[in-house]
Design brief:
There is one protein chain. The protein is α+β, with helices and mostly antiparallel strands. It is 38% helix and 33% strand. The protein has four helices and six strands, in the order ααββαββαββ. It has helices at residues 3-31, 36-41, 72-90, 127-137; strands at 44-49, 52-57, 98-109, 117-123, 139-149, 155-167. The protein starts with a helix and ends with a strand. Residues 1-19 have low confidence and may be disordered.
């Protein structure tokens, strides 16, 4: 590695660590704005971190079902949004150069969901390894685990979302 390359890598790494709180705040602000359906359902991004994300959805008539609980599709949208925040947080150093797609999603509904539901997501795997794979191979794929809880902290659903990310051409 040449001196210029080593200095450039050090500067880039330093800028990332200095700016990281700002990066996650920006991810939180933009997460729902860039996904019209999530915005339409009323999902709100509440936290973004290095491979983590959290979002919430308040129950209202528009996202309820015929038995008075939060509709299954609304729960799925909430969990997928939280997983997207976690995905963006994991790939934060490169997120603007990436085209991510949720390729698969599986959900298990465990209890009736009532009131405000919070989805907490965690990337499976080490974010630095995912970024390295993306840099070296131009693409990566990984799972994000999501847990959805009601206001009483009862787990109402669990899901896994598989994300595919590739560098924009």
């Amino acid at each position: 590695m040449g001196m210029k390359t080593a200095v450039s890598a050090t500067v880039s790494r330093t800028l990332f660590f200095v700016r990281s709180p700002m990066i996650y705040e920006q991810i939180k602000k933009q997460a729902i704005e860039t996904v019209p359906f999530a915005k339409f359902t009323g999902v709100v991004a509440t936290e973004a971190g290095r491979g983590t994300g959290q979002a919430r959805l308040a129950q209202r008539t528009e996202v309820s079902n015929h038995v008075g609980t939060v509709h299954a599709a609304a729960l799925f949208a909430l969990g997928e949004a939280a997983s997207g925040i976690a995905m963006a947080g994991a790939l934060a150093p490169m997120i603007l150069a990436v085209r991510p797609v949720a390729a698969d999603g599986r959900i298990q509904y465990l209890k009736p969901a009532k009131g405000t539901i919070t989805a907490s997501a965690q990337v499976k795997g080490e974010p630095d390894a995912l970024v390295d794979e993306l840099k070296q191979q131009g693409k990566t794929r990984f799972d994000v685990q999501v847990q959805l809880v009601d206001e009483s902290k009862v787990v109402v659903a669990e899901m896994t979302v598989e994300w595919h990310a590739r560098l924009k051409s």
